Amino acid sequence: MGKNKIIRIANAQGFxxxxxxxxIRLVEEGPVDYITFDYLAEITxxxxxxxxxxxxxxxxxxxxxxxxxxxxxxxxxxxxxxxxNAGGVNLKGCLQETKKVIRELGLAGVKxxxxxxxxxxxxxxxxxxxxxxxxxxxSGAAISDIRGAITSANVYIGADSIVNALxxxxxxxITGRASDPxxxxxxxxxEFGWTANxxxxxxxxxxxxxxxxxxxxxxxxxxTDWREVKDYARIGxxxxxxxxxxxxxxxxxxxxxGLVTVDTVTSQLLxxxxxxxxYISPDCVVDFTTINISQExxxxxxxxxxxxxxxxxxxxxxxxxSKGYKIxxxxxxxxxxxxxxAMLLKDIVFERMAMQSVDVAEEDRFxxxxxxxxxxxxxxxxxxxxxxxxxxxxxxxxxxxQLDILGKELAPLVTSGPPGITGFASGRPRATExxxxxxxxxxxxxxxxxxxVEEV
Length: 456
Known about the structure:
Elements: E1 7-13, H1 21-29, E2 34-37, H2 42-54, H3 62-78, E3 81-84, H4 91-104, E4 111-116, H5 124-129, E5 150-155, H6 160-167, E6 172-175, H7 182-192, H8 199-212, E7 239-242, E8 248-251, H9 262-269, E9 279-280, E10 285-287, E11 292-297, E12 300-304, E13 307-309, E14 314-334, H10 338-355, E15 365-370, E16 388-397, H11 400-408, H12 413-416, E17 421-422, E18 432-443, E19 450-455
Parallel strand pairs: 1-2, 2-3, 3-6, 4-6
Antiparallel strand pairs: 1-7, 4-19, 5-14, 7-8, 8-12, 9-10, 10-13, 11-12, 14-16, 14-17, 14-18, 15-16
Helix pairs in contact: 1-3, 3-4, 6-7, 7-8, 8-9
């Protein structure tokens, strides 16, 4: 292993629904060794579980399959490996679709691996009976409070099985709910031969994964000083150049838009961060206060000095559960006295619901008036009455049919309410299910991840 070996890892998708241009441009516009795809947010797992209940062949990120169709020939030619948590709750289904794409593209000799073991939905009763409390980490509430309403349960697994799949020659590794940074930790462990005892190096890799996990959010996206960012349309997705000592550089391909500075990278470092001295991942615990960050050159930020310690004996579990239903609709209110008219519209809707035997408690009603600084309530003062605003009105409850009455009573306001009501072109809203999030911990002794690799 060369002392000066550099491994380039890029992240092409920061969430399910990110731009299709991300992976295409990363492959075409510069050198990359690995591309990661981070699709899974907490609510995403529950959505995928519901999809699978209705269609056994669903339950994974279909965007991933579309991406492969566009980039796999180039990845094969250039030797770029792909790691994605696209499997959701149906790894086998994702694997089959991946193999189908490979064959349709006329490629051969592509090795595909999957990593299983994160989905514990079918094991919940067994685990609870065996002593795993799965209490809510935030509130301390007992799992029995929601047991009958749980829709998905997935463990944030670490890098180990991804590493094993890479050791068996996998060109593509598909996981379920792997931890976001672990998608980056794994290829560095494989390439540099790091072990679970290399705490500082794993910590550095975890920091790298955290920086790039949200895609362009570290290259100028969602950045406070947005006027400094050039060419947002062609914003470059992040590429990290990693060394064996754990140091790395955050950059992007040449001649792309965006901005990589200490400030853009630091903004992402602080994203979703709790105790900076104790950032817990499945692979290690990171002390973010030890990070040295410096500008190495134009669009190049160097990270050194990261310290870490051994991993905790538990995994985090993401549990989703049903919490009833909600409905949300919008109307535009224009002309003089728009705020007063909107308040009247709100009262009309809930009164007409009551006339149809649907009484919505005050705490279950929702309304806000965009155009009146609703996003900065209490922070921004304005004495000028707006001439147009958007009314968002909604409710929650246990009966979707009753909530749908709210949706039916919005359009009539155009002709049976005060003047200047418009903007109903989006159609009648309908009640949708509310998904609750339940974070918990589970002993690592209870979770065994497995992998297998096959050549297509």
